[in-house]
Design brief:
heterodimer, A: 474 residues, alpha/beta, FAD/NAD(P)-binding domain, 7-stranded antiparallel β-sheet, 14 helices, B: 50 residues, alpha+beta
């Protein structure tokens, strides 16, 4: 069922209370429902987009420029999936090297994640060289509110309550007693056996930090809450042209296709050899960064200007069918550093909860990664005559990125083995608190180059399994 | 003995010629000299005969 507030809800009735109705929260609720476990799903926003609701997401950014925090997140049913692009892929195996779990542990949830996202369970990888793979993504059109609203409305096991803000958790002796929530003008305590915080990478940190302030001794002082925040530097890195025929000749039967985005990622060998972070690029045939579509002409003019000899060779090729002119967008990893963090601001929102200050600086290593990655690709293309690539001069000169987006927010409640370096364990349980779990990309240890939502859902399914085991054993 | 030596030399020379034929192309492409040219805000990575 769906309720617009907490009035008339029997709050003693739920073994699990989940805060946040984005992909992480809804997925765990759906999986618990299948196991016949009741859950209370709390959403701070309403059913649809609302500017007053978005006001709560305003915060300060200190350091390098990044997308406004109230634009990059949605405080409504379905969470930020309301405006995501749907680009989906599991994380690479090597991304898990610093995590307390390995990628194999998430494989059992691949199929179900694809079902939830309405995508094919196909993520092929084809070698282009020792340093590059062509990789396949799937594109989901699922907005969680649209897909699951009616299902939840008719559900007997899921009770979704809208317009209800979690303020903080109250607990002692390694146990969360209740969650204090504000619903309209009333304040209510929600009690459950297990609590799941799934409000997004910034909000998870904010609400845990506030819980720590409100209950001294409840959350361990050593927990690095808010720290190691990450995004994916997403940057227009260059432009160029590629010959389809020559790519196919080089990759033989492995070539994955050419018509949509063509993604290439760095291999583990490349990352180790050049000491860079993981990185990927995709070629856009249409210039999505500007409304006009004159990119092909522009690139061809450029190449004729800088390389007339090569231009003549191009004139002899079957232009339309064979040559792909494109802007190159980079999607890079940003290494987790302690200084990039979410902290509580002195400014408070309407409910008296401190807003956030996000400290963010681009790192030299991610800037260096962009240059080395593109340079290696450009050299491969010219040496093997696959095409010609140009790198944006700011990247060539190792200047800071002009980030295109800031929607991929990760870290802040990092997963790990001990409370000195991480906030949650491999089961997503907060260290030293028996019944408090955190779900979402805030738990990511490293970001890889892959969009985070697919992995968020895999973890959310796994969390439901863990909760089911706990409730069964209880 | 002479026969053996002749056969060995024949095989050696044949395999050398095959190896040089196979490797020649990649050897040649690998050492294409890089030439950089700036146009607008982009640095083009070109071969020197481009």
């Amino acid at each position: 069922m769906i309720s617009k507030n907490l009035d008339n809800i029997n709050l003693e009735d739920f073994p699990v209370a989940i805060f946040g109705s984005g992909p992480a929260g809804i997925t765990t609720a759906l999986e618990l429902e299948k196991k016949n476990i009741k859950c209370l799903l709390i959403e701070a926003g309403g059913e649809d987009y609302n500017e007053d609701s978005q006001e709560f997401y305003k915060g300060k950014i200190i350091g390098d420029k990044i997308l406004d925090l109230s634009e990059s997140r949605l405080r409504q049913l379905g969470g930020t999936s309301g405006h995501w692009g749907g680009t989906s892929k599991p994380l690479e195996e090597y991304t898990f090297e610093l995590w307390p779990i390995k990628s194999d542990e998430l494989k059992p949830y691949l199929k179900r994640t694809c079902e939830i996202l309405n995508i094919n369970n196909q993520f092929r990888k084809a070698p282009l060289s020792n340093f590059f793979n062509q990789v396949e993504f799937q594109y989901s059109g699922v907005k969680f509110a649209d897909k699951y609203k009616n299902h939840i409305r008719n559900s007997k096991n899921i009770t979704l309550v809208l317009n209800t803000q979690l303020s903080h958790f109250v607990g002692d002796n390694n146990n969360t007693r209740h969650a204090l929530c504000i619903s309209g003008k009333t304040i209510k305590n929600i009690r459950a056996k297990y609590f799941v915080l799934a409000c997004g990478a910034i909000e998870n940190s904010r609400l845990l930090l506030w819980s720590k302030v409100k209950n001294s001794g409840f959350l361990d002082n050593n927990l690095p809450i808010g720290k190691y925040w990450m995004t994916h530097p997403h940057e227009l890195g260059g432009r160029g042209l590629i010959s389809k025929k020559k790519l196919e000749e080089k990759m033989k039967n492995n070539f994955l296709g050419y018509d949509n985005f063509m993604h290439f990622s760095a291999t583990k060998e490349f990352i180790i050899k050049k000491k860079i972070l993981s990185a990927s690029m995709y070629m856009l045939t249409q210039d999505v960064f500007r409304k006009d579509k004159i990119i092909d002409k522009e690139i061809l003019k450029d190449i004729l200007c800088v390389a007339p000899g090569y231009g003549k060779k191009l004139a002899n090729m079957d232009f339309i069918k064979d040559i792909k002119c494109a802007n190159i967008a980079l999607l890079l990893e940003q290494e987790p550093i302690e200084e990039n963090k979410v902290v509580l601001d002195d400014d408070k929102d309407k409910f008296g909860i401190p807003k956030v200050k996000l400290f963010f600086k681009q790192t030299e290593l991610s800037i260096k990664t962009a240059k080395l990655f593109l340079e290696e690709f450009a050299d491969l293309c010219r040496k093997e005559d696959l095409g010609r690539i140009a790198i944006k001069d700011s990247i060539y000169n190792l200047k800071k990125f002009e980030l295109l987006e800031g929607y991929h927010q990760m870290g802040g409640t990092k997963m790990g083995v001990d409370k000195y370096n991480s906030v949650v364990n491999a089961d997503l349980k907060v260290h030293d608190v028996d019944n408090l779990y955190v779900s979402g990309s805030s738990n990511f240890v490293t970001g890889g180059y892959t969009n985070p939502t697919f992995t968020i859902i895999q973890f959310a399914i796994r969390l439901a399994e863990k909760l089911n085991e706990k409730l069964g054993s209880a | 003995m002479k026969m053996l030596r002749r056969n060995f030399l024949k095989m050696f020379i044949t395999s050398l010629s095959i190896i040089s034929f196979v490797k020649f192309d990649s050897f040649f492409s690998y050492y294409k000299k890089r030439k950089l040219r700036k146009n607008k805000n982009f640095i083009w990575y070109l071969n020197d005969n481009d």
